[in-house]
Specification:
Elements: E1 5-10, H1 14-27, E2 31-35, H2 47-56, E3 62-66, H3 78-94, E4 98-101, E5 104-105, E6 108-109, H4 111-123, E7 127-130, H5 140-150, E8 154-157, H6 172-182, E9 187-191, H7 199-206, E10 211-215, H8 228-245
Parallel strand pairs: 1-2, 1-10, 2-3, 3-4, 4-7, 7-8, 8-9, 9-10
Antiparallel strand pairs: 5-6
Helix pairs in contact: 1-2, 1-8, 3-4, 7-8
Length: about 250
């Protein structure tokens, strides 16, 4: 059984980061997503932070790097695209196994920018996640089909509109629809308020589908340290739901 839990880590404190990486993986996380400046919903971490995280993780772990140089927008112009491509190269050289990005235009997915970003990631053998820019798109079914065709590996979503700032539990119905449309052709990563209180319900959505959970505040204590007991609790609920379906 796959562990299917992704833990988001803040890269601002380098000393705390190394310990949090080790704790997350030891507690059972399958991969981590590394971000800087979480108060701005996560920006690209420094090359130093990337290297620290890569050195701290086990050989079987996955390290995903947020590629987002600018806050408060998902529109990617030529200047931002150049920055993102450079940051993908830095992530690869630091030891990442994947990158997380999103690019939109007035029509939804920015196909040209997304194609360039995927090509760059594939050049370095990096997995790709389209982040919650997806939740800005009105026609999610069309977007899923397009992102699948383009070669994106995963989509991060909580089933609600990005601008509504709602909890994942308010997006359950739409998440069911998204998972159905994905039809195991692309992995759906559920994130945005995942906690020990709602993990059981969310794992029910996952069932045997290509779905994983993404947790941030729900697995950290108030001082920013990863709490292994919270990770264990979320994963145990996955095990319990799996047992019910066997």
């Amino acid at each position: 059984m796959r562990k299917n839990l992704e833990v988001c880590l803040n890269a601002d404190d380098h000393i705390q980061l190394a310990d949090n990486v080790k704790t997350a993986f030891t507690a059972g996380a399958a991969r981590i997503e590394l971000c800087n400046t979480m108060q701005l919903e996560g920006l690209t971490p420094s090359a130093t932070a990337m290297t620290i995280a890569a050195h701290a993780m086990p050989s079987e772990g996955e390290l995903l790097i947020m590629i987002r140089p600018v806050a408060n927008q998902f529109i990617v112009d030529a200047t931002i695209l150049k920055q993102m491509l450079t940051q993908i190269a830095h992530a690869a050289h630091a030891g990442a196994t994947g990158v997380v990005f999103g690019a939109l235009n007035a029509n939804g997915v920015d196909v040209a920018a997304t194609t360039a970003l995927i090509a760059c990631a594939h050049k370095y053998n990096l997995a790709t996640t389209f982040h919650r820019a997806f939740d800005c798109i009105e026609d999610s079914e069309k977007a899923i089909g397009l992102l699948t065709e383009l070669g994106i590996d995963r989509i991060l979503t909580n089933g609600t509109k990005w601008t509504d700032d709602k909890d994942v539990m308010q997006g359950l119905n739409h998440l069911q629809t998204i998972i159905s449309h994905a039809n195991d052709h692309i992995e759906i990563v559920i994130g945005g308020g995942v906690t020990t209180d709602n993990a059981s319900t969310l794992w029910q959505l996952a069932n045997n589908n290509l779905v994983s959970l993404h947790a941030y505040s729900g697995v950290h204590n108030k001082d920013g340290w990863v709490d292994p007991l919270l990770i264990n609790a979320i994963l145990n609920q996955r095990t319990n739901e799996q047992a019910k379906n066997d």
